[in-house]
Design brief:
- Helix 2 runs antiparallel to helix 3.
- The chain has 4 helices and no strands.
- By secondary structure, the protein is mostly helical.
- The relative contact order is 0.16.
- The chain has a single domain, classed as 23S rRNA-intervening sequence (de novo design (two linked rop proteins), Up-down Bundle).
- Helix content is about 70%, strand content about 0%.
Length: about 140
Amino acid sequence: MENVFEDSQGVYNKNRDFTSLFCWQDARKVKLFFYNKILPLLPNEEKFNLDIQLRKTLCSSTANIAEGYGRYHYQEGLQFYRISKGSTYESKDHLISCFDLGYINNDFYNEGLELIEKAKISLNGYIKFVKTQKKGLK
């Protein structure tokens, strides 16, 4: 199995970093969806509540994958990936709130759910992959 930091010959590849991970790419799609389609629809009274909570959790989802990828030990990386997973679930809760409060329509709600589910699945897969890599080192 190929190391996530190296090419098939075991040489460090500067072009492979966290941005090459499908889970980061999927989390980024969720973040961009919210920033481009959901946040502009929130009323002014949500500027210091739901808006800020969403911005924090969306940035946390991608940033924790990036930070985990940059950690030396697998176990350390896994902790950051788990935090990202929690942030992704938090984004889902905020999406539900936006729908329940009537800030978004059914189409945006379903689109958001689909993007979030894809991000959760790819992140769970990456966590499983990293655990497998960790076991192979023992």
